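re the bet — no i am not wrong, look at it urself. input seq straight from the record:
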Amino acid sequence: MLFIYFPEWIKPEIIPGLPVRWYGLMYLFAFGVTYLLFQKQKKQESLDASDDDVSNLFFYLILGLILGARLLSALVYDTSGIYWRKPWLIFWPFMGGQFVGLQGMSYHGGLIGAVLGGVIFCWRKKWYFPAVADRILLGVPLGYTFGRLGNFINGELYGRVTTSKLGIVFPHAGRFSSSLDWVKETAAEIGMDISSMAMVNLPRHPSQLYEAFSEGILLWLFLWFIIRRNKKYEGQVTGWYLIGYGAARFIIEYFREPDEGLDFPILLGDPSPNYLFSSLLNITTGQIFCFLMILSGVLCLLFFRWKDLSRKGEGLLK
């Protein structure tokens, strides 16, 4: 077999029957890693910021992240329209009488919310936001890795159908009729016997793991060991983070299945269902956001470099 079945022993719940999931715990790990790396930098650079200041900063960041991530996911990525009709359900963690948490969080919405939260806090404290953002973002990719591992454990945000040896059959992925020619060809290529199946669950790219590695570990190594050591001005890490994440995510989007109903806002290549790859010219909603991130990163590098010339002699955070 040229594919892998999703391990049956991996369950979303930490303890079966209790509303405590690995995905939520991964968020705690992500915030914890980012917090510890910020504290490490504060100590190394002797920054004039108390532990209470740092805790309050993270409160603003986390609050903004959760609000932004949930709002964009519910109002943009959800195509049912239910949250526009019933907005009070956006932050309602129950469904069918059961606790399900906040299902659906948008990375780009979380980024926007965290930026707004950070800007508000820095404005109140009279801190220089680019300096704070640089030190926060040096830890974010490593924390982000845990979030994508949580998506993998949930068996969600899987990729498009693939014949690659890395392909995984996710239990909740969409199934296809075994009578379709392309399904028969795909199954034959990977050695899957579908003779007794009416509906077939084909292997998908584990795009959550691709993202955890590229937008998480690789981006963190690049920022921490290259950009940080060669940094010339405040805001430089921020610019490279936006460019690095945007570029990595733009590429991974070709492997990831677009959200149902959104498909391809820009369709310049051969049309195909969202679960199949057909052309590099078919652009997803996520790729549009990533392009805007890359553009924003370039503008940040130019602007903060110019801004730094007028700040010579001023304090790091003020």
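see?? The CA atoms of residues 127 and 317 lie 5 Å apart. told u. also The radius of gyration is 22 Å. so pay up
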